[in-house]
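Researcher: We plan to redesign the surface later, but first we want a full-length starting point. Tokens attached.
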């Protein structure tokens, strides 16, 4: 009987909480688990940064884009639009190709006097100084596109001028008359067409 009691006591001691070792309480496992958490957190942060960068590239002109060396025609543009609403767009315009920059300035002068006669939406500037009518979530009742910022306006309209120049060969104010009357000017008087070309050419030539 005494021997049996000793055996039971030994078994009880072997399975006591003092002798039981938690496998997750070891230092190597703790370090491994912590390392996994750090790597997982880093991957999440990286994914968020990539997503934000993608959105920025699609909707806005990035900071690095504006930090390029100023082109020689930037000074001419600044001088021309000084004191007009379009003045705030100068950094974005100057970074376009020279011919596109010239169209952005000259057509805006003709269509809105560099922003002084521009469409509004709910009393706010649409930053549309070219009479641009591209499809957008924000449009005026008269069909003009409203942009959220000067950067978005230049990014969108410059892209359209680039397309017309490079893919349709409209590289002079005479050819760019499609901006005024579309591909057929029969509905416009010869005088108004000539006036548009003359006015746009005057400022286009000062830059280009």
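Model: Full-length starting sequence:
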């Amino acid at each position: 009987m005494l021997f049996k009691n000793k055996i039971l006591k030994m078994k009880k001691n072997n399975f006591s909480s003092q002798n039981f070792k938690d496998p997750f309480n070891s230092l190597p496992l703790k370090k491994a688990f912590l390392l996994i958490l750090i790597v997982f957190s880093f991957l999440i942060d990286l994914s968020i940064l990539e997503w934000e960068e993608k959105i920025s590239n699609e909707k806005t002109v990035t900071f690095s884009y504006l930090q390029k060396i100023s082109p020689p025609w930037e000074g001419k543009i600044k001088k021309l639009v000084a004191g007009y609403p379009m003045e705030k767009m100068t950094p974005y315009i100057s970074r376009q190709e020279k011919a596109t920059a010239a169209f952005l300035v000259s057509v805006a002068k003709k269509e809105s006097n560099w922003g002084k006669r521009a469409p509004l939406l709910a009393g706010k500037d649409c930053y549309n100084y070219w009479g641009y009518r591209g499809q957008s979530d924000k449009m005026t009742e008269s069909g003009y596109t409203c942009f959220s910022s000067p950067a978005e306006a230049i990014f969108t309209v410059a892209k359209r001028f680039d397309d017309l120049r490079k893919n349709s060969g409209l590289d002079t104010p005479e050819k760019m008359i499609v901006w005024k009357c579309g591909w057929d000017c029969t509905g416009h008087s010869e005088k108004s067409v000539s006036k548009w070309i003359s006015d746009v050419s005057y400022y286009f030539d000062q830059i280009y």
